[in-house]
Amino acid sequence: MTQAQDARVILVGNELLKGERRDAHLAFVGRAMLASGMQVSTAQVVGDDRVEIARVIREQLRGAKVLIVCGGLGPTHDDVTREGVADALGLPLEFSEQHWKEIQRIFQKFGRRADKSNRQQAYFPKGATAIPNRRGTAPGFAIERDGCFIAVLPGPPQELIPMMEKVVLPRIGEMFNKRPLFTEAFRTAGVGESAMTPHLQPILDRHDAFNVSSLPHIGGVDIVITQKPDVVDRERVKRQAQTFEEELRRYLGAKLYAKGSASLESVVGRSLVESRATLAIAESITGGLIGKRFTDVPGSSRYLLADVVAYSNESKVTFLGVSRKALEDHGAVSEAVCREMAQGIRRETGATWAIATTGIAGPSGATEEKPVGLAFYGVSWDGGVEIRERVFPGNREDVRERVAFATMLLIYERLVGASGPTRS
Fold first, then answer.
1. Angle subtended at Cα 243 by Cα 238 and Cα 244, rounded to the nearest 5 degrees
2. Which of helix, strand or coil describes residue 324?
3. CB atoms inside a 10 Å sphere around CB 371
4. pLDDT tens, residue by residue, 249-302
5. Is residue 69 within 8 Å of residue 152, measured between CB atoms?
């Protein structure tokens, strides 16, 4: 194990093993460790079993400098992480009257009363230091063992992330005094990983100061470069990173829509604000998903005028002015209807730009001519309208997500001027 590969993560929860909930921690923890000069070398999922949690912790402690344990600190019978940690370290659990009072105070703040089951959240392994939780009732805790710093945190990301940022990361920085590894992320859309790889490899071959990760997502690929642990010349890393970005932009053009963690909807919103333009949305297949994406971005009221979810044929006529003739001649899932939806919402709101979606998300509603996944999505502006047709793969949720992303990508391309390789 190299000096930088010294952080390990344990995710606790039966729901993760059963696929009932997706992990929402590892990506954040991995990035956070890099910012502290460390790299996560191992991540393991374990169920809500006290004996198994203790076994995995003992196993992962060997050779680790940092161990992050996420989940299982709640008040229910299957929240046994604190017991598993105590067993692994051979320590008794001790009750903290101070933290029990704090838990009670949190409940009182919201007009509720703490239950007896919440008392277990005030137990900590002997010698552990509590980590305050400002977003929930379960405090975390930290303890050192054989040169390893162990941080045990609750599962909900809205609780875990601020606890990591305010307490755990500063503590790691103080203990190990490591310089953060240089890392940079480039967000791309509209080019598949298989199509990108042959063009990307020659660029990568010219740079040896960092490792490159290719992370596919629903609409494209995120490319992340990370300083190699054995490369100490940081200026060399930065020079190569700058050259890498320049070459990447020459190849991808507008398909490289952001550097860092910015979402496509935030990039579109920023472009609208900069051009003093407005946007209106007419959704059918996506059912309000695009509107949610835009309104999740703070300040979206500066450019978003309306989002109409016109699911039925009648609502398309009533609210968007879609003609009955278009519906009768072509059906709701058609280029003609999508065109009239985009034009109608722009006409009704006076927006600079309008986007629209219609399609078949499945699993029912398909015909031989119109399969599941078929979607029409488009953009309308003063002087033009563009409608695209695609059959998207996946289940109902996947199809809706892909249509939403493709529609946002379409208006992004119109706003900034699309260039670069075509979609694969």
1. 95
2. helix
3. 12
4. 988 888 999 998 899 999 999 999 999 999 999 999 999 999 999 999 999 999
5. yes
Taking the C-alpha atoms of residue 344 and residue 340, their distance in angstroms, rounded to an integer, is 6
Check: CB of residue 334 under 8 Å from CB of residue 322: no
Q: Is the pLDDT of residue 423 over 80?
A: no
pTM as predicted: 0.75
Instruction: Let me know: does 253 contact 418? Beta carbons within 8 Å.
Output: yes
Helices (H) and strands (E) in the chain, counts: 15, 17
pLDDT tens digits for range 149-166: 999 999 888 899 999 999
β-bridge pairing 374-381 and 384-391? antiparallel
- Identify the sign of the CA torsion 127, 131, 132, 138: negative
> What pLDDT shows up at residue 410?
96
Cα dist from 22 to 26, 137, 313, 355, whole Å: 10, 22, 35, 30
| The dihedral sign for the CA sequence 119, 121, 127, 130 | negative
